[in-house]
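Students often ask why inverse folding is considered easier than folding. One informal answer: many sequences map to the same fold, so there is more than one right answer. In these notes we will look at a single instance of the problem. The structure comes first.
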C-alpha cells in the first residue's frame, strides 16, 4: 500500500506574517489526520520561521527548489545542505514554471535531484506536457523523456525518497483539470516507464501525484483512481480551510 501524499505549493505567495498565521491555523486542522503524508512547499525565504511551528506535528516543510551544488558562487540559489540543517525534509524539483520561465532542463533538474538526495532531502519530481504536446499525442513521449533524463543515474534505493508529480501544464492554474480518466491513463504509463527503468517493485511502490487545478470538489474522484497516490496543490492550498478539505479527501 502506498501512503497518500498531499502536497501544497505556495509558489511566490505569502509574507512571513501571513505564512506564520497560516501554519498556526493549519496545524490545528491537521491534528487528527492519519494515514496521509502532508507536505507544504513555501518560498525558501519563509522556511526558517516555520520550522519551529511545525515541529512535533504531522506537517513536512518543503523548499520549492534547490541548487545542484552544496555551496559556492551561485548568487540567489539555495543549498540542500542548508535546508537539511534547518530541518526541511523535502523539495519540489522540475516544476513546469521553473522549466518554462527559468530555463531549467532535464539535465539541470537531474543534477539538483542528485544533490538533494545526497543531502537527505526528499524530492517531489515534477513532469508534464504542454497543451500542444497533448493535442499532438506526444504526452507519453514527453513524460518518458522527462523521467528517463531526470532520473539518470538514480538507483533503486534512491527512488524510495522520490515522488513523481504529473502536472499537465495546460491544467496548472487554468481552472481546467485533466479528467480522472486522463490522469489515470498517464499515471499508469508512468508506472510502465519506471518498470522499464528500474523494476516492478519500484514501479508499484513509487508514489505518483497529480497536480493541475486540484480542488476540494475534484480531489476525491482523482484519488479514487488506482494509480493516483496524492496531489500537488497550487491555488487551492493557499487557504487552510480549503487545503484541509483536500488533505481529508477520504
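Output (designed amino acids):
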Amino acid at each position: 500500500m502506498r501512503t497518500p501524499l498531499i502536497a501544497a505549493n505556495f509558489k511566490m505567495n505569502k509574507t512571513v506574517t501571513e505564512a506564520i498565521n497560516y501554519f498556526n491555523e493549519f496545524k490545528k486542522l491537521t491534528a487528527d489526520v492519519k494515514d496521509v503524508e502532508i507536505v507544504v512547499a513555501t518560498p525558501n525565504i519563509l522556511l526558517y520561521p516555520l520550522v519551529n511551528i511545525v515541529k512535533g506535528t504531522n506537517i513536512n516543510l518543503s523548499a520549492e527548489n534547490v541548487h545542484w551544488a552544496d555551496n559556492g558562487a551561485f548568487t540567489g540559489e539555495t543549498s540542500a545542505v542548508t535546508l537539511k540543517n534547518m530541518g526541511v525534509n523535502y523539495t519540489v524539483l522540475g516544476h513546469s514554471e521553473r522549466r518554462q520561465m527559468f530555463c531549467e532542463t532535464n539535465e539541470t533538474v537531474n543534477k539538483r535531484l542528485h544533490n538533494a538526495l545526497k543531502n537527505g532531502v526528499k524530492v517531489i519530481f515534477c513532469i508534464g506536457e504542454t497543451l500542444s504536446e497533448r493535442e499532438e499525442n506526444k504526452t507519453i513521449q514527453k513524460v518518458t523523456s522527462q523521467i528517463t533524463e531526470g532520473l539518470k543515474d538514480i538507483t533503486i534505493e534512491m527512488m524510495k525518497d522520490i515522488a513523481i508529480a504529473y502536472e499537465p501544464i495546460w491544467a496548472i492554474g487554468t481552472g481546467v483539470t485533466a479528467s480522472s480518466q486522463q490522469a489515470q491513463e498517464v499515471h499508469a504509463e508512468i508506472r510502465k516507464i519506471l518498470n522499464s527503468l528500474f523494476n516492478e517493485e519500484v514501479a508499484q511502490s513509487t508514489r505518483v501525484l497529480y497536480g493541475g487545478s486540484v480542488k476540494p470538489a475534484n480531489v476525491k474522484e482523482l484519488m479514487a483512481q488506482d494509480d493516483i497516490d496524492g496531489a500537488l496543490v497550487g491555488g487551492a492550498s493557499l487557504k487552510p480551510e480549503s487545503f484541509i478539505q483536500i488533505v481529508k479527501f477520504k
